[in-house]
């Protein structure tokens, strides 16, 4: 049996994509090892696309909690890496498997781990690369790109607008997304709406408002889902179809969620709306291709139920200006 590295990062799509630089560093450091990622089962496709993961071990817990257990088969892992959090619950979960080595941040609750100190005010990509570098493993926080999927896009050249987010605090109002959609269509852009499981009602709201010039959603139902200039994909697309849609899009507009990280991974111009969390912690790499809109202020609760006050300070005109002034977004 090949020696094995077990990596714990049982979080969401955006978390996985932010962890790709660290995963690729582990791949380079352990070329002969099987790298097993403990993560939610629905992330198997993007994990494989990273080129750094050999196998996914299904693992998840509500919210951002640490899984209660891991169904690890066979002998103990030769190396375990905690990319989930700063412990001690995630440390203890991996320690129960008795790995040959455990790479993790230091924590007073697990004094036997001599790792680097955790820093709260640090970008997510940088944090995990710094962890590995402390253990002598070089890592590049900018190593985020994914190869384009080998399937055609269902709407090549469209602007993709994704109004959903995991929490209400990071979810810009549907009416404002609809105003952005109307502005884009007036300027000749084709627009595609995407949503994950459970977000169909949100997409319907954006569609209903966007298709009325006055922005009023109280009238009769709007046109069909595909009217030639505006289209919606409900229920969550399979990863290859979603990836193709984003990789071949003119631009991507979304909140601070996994879709924003996926746009970065494919190098598609994007405009991302930040509220409770600063883009300095979760935002795109520096440069002009990816625009982060944010009004500085005290940090909010990224898991709150209501839209964050700083997110609400962003208006549709701000998003449209960012898109229309973007040097890499072509005019239709």
Short summary of the structure?
This protein is α/β, with parallel strands linked by helices and 332 residues long. Helix content is 30%, strand content 14%.
Plain-language structure description:
It comes from Streptomyces lavendofoliae. Keywords: Glycosyltransferase, Transferase. This is Glycosyltransferase family 9 protein. Pfam families: Glyco_transf_9. This protein has 332 residues and is α/β, with parallel strands linked by helices. The chain is built from 12 helices and 11 strands. The chain has a 6-stranded parallel β-sheet with strand order 8-7-6-9-10-11, sandwiched between helices. A 5-stranded parallel β-sheet has the order 3-2-1-4-5, sandwiched between helices. The radius of gyration is 21 Å and the shape is elongated. 46% of the residues are buried. The model is unreliable at 216-225 (pLDDT under 50).
